[in-house]
Each structure stands twice: as C-alpha cells, then as structure tokens.
Amino acid sequence: MSVMTIVGAQWGDEGKGKIVDLLAGRMDVVARWGGGPNAGHTVVVDEEKYILHHIPSGILNPTALCLLGAGVVVDPEKFLSEVDGLEQRGIRVDNRLFVDGRAHVILPYHRRLDECQERTSAIGTTGRGIGPAYTDKATRNGIRMSDMLYPKHLQERVRSETEQRNLLLEKLYNESPLDIDYIVKSTQLLAERMKPYIIDVSLLLEKQIAGDKKILFEGAQGTLLDINFGTYPFVTSSEPIAGGASTGLGVGPRHLQKVLGIAKAYVTRVGNGPFPTELKDEMGIELRKRGAEFGSTTGRARRCGWWDNVLARYSARVNGITSWAITKLDVLSGINQIPICTGYETPNGVIDYFPMDLFTLERCKPVYENLPGWKEDISHVTNFSRLPIEARRYVERIERLTGVPVEYISVGEKREQTIKLV
Prior knowledge:
Layout (H helix, E strand, L loop, with lengths): L1 E7 L7 H9 L4 E4 L8 E5 L2 E5 L12 E4 L4 E2 L1 H13 L8 E4 L3 E2 L2 H14 L8 H9 L12 H22 L7 H15 L3 E2 L1 H10 L3 E5 L24 H7 L8 E7 L2 E3 L12 H10 L11 E3 L1 E2 H11 L3 E5 L9 E10 L2 E3 L6 H4 L3 E8 L16 H14 L3 E5 L7 E3 L2
Parallel strand pairs: 1-10, 1-11, 2-5, 2-10, 5-7, 6-8, 7-9, 11-15, 14-16, 15-19
Antiparallel strand pairs: 3-4, 12-13, 16-17, 16-18, 19-20
Helix pairs in contact: 3-4, 3-5, 5-6
C-alpha cells in the first residue's frame, strides 16, 4: 500500500494542480477530500492549459481512477460542464471518475445566499455557494448526491428547501425569490446525468488500498483557510489540512503516512484577512506581475509577501508534513536581496509560533533575515546542483528553518520544469 497526501501549506494557490499532475502519472487513484468548485488547479501539459475546479487534477492521467469524497460539496451543473469541457479536449472520464453518494449538493439557492452573505460579511468568498452548502450540511438540511438516485424524493426535497431559502432571500436580504419550478426541473435533469458517477467512494478506496494500489489524496485550498486551524473567520468552510483526508474520504488516519506540503517560494493570499509578510509596496506589485498572481477561480489579484517561516512551521505541525514541494522559485530570480520571516514582533515581544487568535495575528510584524538573491534565469534548470548557489542556499535555509526536507522544486508551470531532490 502506497498513499501520499498533498496539502496546500499556505492560503491556497500554492501550485497543487501542477504537483498533483506531475505525480498522478504514476498513481492508480487520485482522490479529493474537501472543498468544491471554489478550488482552482491549473495544469499545463504540452502547451495545453487546463483549469480544474471540481475534478481531481489526476484526470489528465488516462489510466488514473479519480474520486471525489464525502467531504466535497458538488455543484452538478459545474461538475458536468467541466466533464464536457474535458471530453471536448479528448480527455475521457467514463468509468474512472466517481463521486461519493454522501457528498452534499450545491444548488442555486446556495450561490444566491453566498452572494448576499458576502455583501454583509466581506470574508472574500468565491461566491460559488460553498459556505451555505456546508452550513446546510452542519444543520442537517443538506441534499446529498445519493438523493439524486431517487427522483420523487429529490423533487420533494429540492422544492421544500428552495421554498425555505426563498423566505430568507425575501425577508432577510430583501431579494426576489428564486423560480422553484425551474430549479426542481433543472435539478432533476442534472440528476439523470449524475447517476453514473455516484458510488460509495470509501468502500472503493478500501478495496484499492487492500489491492496495494498507488494512491494520491489531493487537497484543495490551503492550511491557513482551514475552518478549525486557519485564520478564522477568513477561512473556507471545509478542512484542507491533511486530517481532512481521513474524514472526507472515509479512510483511517493510519494511511496518512506521507504528507507532501505545497508552498510557494513566497506567500500569496486572496481576499481579506491578516497577512503578516504582505508587501504593500512596489515589490508586492512586482511579485504579483512576475508570478501572474491572479485567482484561477475568481480572477482576483492575489496579495503577495515574503516567505513566512512561522506560518510554514505551523503548517508542517498541523499537517504532519514529511516533505516540501516549493513552487515558483523562478519568480524570485533577479531580486537582489530576499527576506525570510523567522519570527513575529508583538506588543509582548518576539514570538516564533503562529498565534491562535486573530487579534494577536493582526498585530504581528515580521522579523526578517536577508538572503542574497540570484540574477540567473532558472526556469530551464532540472538539477538542483545546477541552480545558482544563492538559490540553493535559499532552499536549504527553508529546510533548516522548518526542519522538513524539500523534495520537489518547481521553476515553471510545465511538468518538465520541476527539480526532484529526494
């Protein structure tokens, strides 16, 4: 049995899609455990760019079995649209893409409520209905994928739940109601197409693990967006940390033995919330330009900052990270001096741990050590020893400060622009 878990170690957008695609070629199974169409994994293969929101990045491996676990929330319309887009480009998904029947369904009222709630809370959501769908799940009002297997039951549930949400829209948000008949009918049509994809993913994974298959658990979003351990309330509604793979896929935690943490060579964040190393000057704008830091899901500009080792050590701890994949190292080429944050200055002194509360974190100021940069273009380098010495020292410093070895370095968006170290 060989299982690897991939997690985002920052605020998402770390380049998980490329790393998953890189590793998926040797995997029998790729399974995603949480989130929904708020994810945006970009993969470039032979000059072709694929942006995947719902479907695991492993779908580009024609032999890989791709699964969405019970912890995912699924928008059937967007899921099927993504399937159609892949098949139009020659990527077949029949009999190798499945969704757990326990996964909850995103319906039009979830998207509308998300938009209304964002206007009042300004969390910085994607507006894809993720939060309201997870809210319904927690309050036991959700509709699950398995409900789509029973047409009459589905019709009754969708009608009843839409009626309830219309009351919220009208009375609380002063919004016009949704067309109930249209939603019921369109959901029934989507359910017919979804039926072949609905299975018991947990049961299938048990058989794959017992059969000694090579399995990759694919995370969405990032550690600092975790509902429990992220920068609450500026978080997502699911559990992007490694432990979420166990609960979201229905596998025992003993299988999570190798955890690969994906982190950019600098840090980015989309939306609101504290960000200790954020650069609010010309360098921040320059990093955004160099790294093309715009959300693949929302198109919003990402906030940019230097490597935060306090954050990295925190991610390593809560995920049990066993090795790093450092992405976008090439973006730092040509910068004379590259700071690394080693601690936070607070009103009560310098700390080297990530605060558990927002009030402390908002007052943290980064303590930096400076490393010399390098001028060379490294996007063509495929061997660690061929990197400029300054680039090697930057990577080695990350290893020493975090106590976790670097296994992969990405120096471009293509598969071949990757350095394997371990």
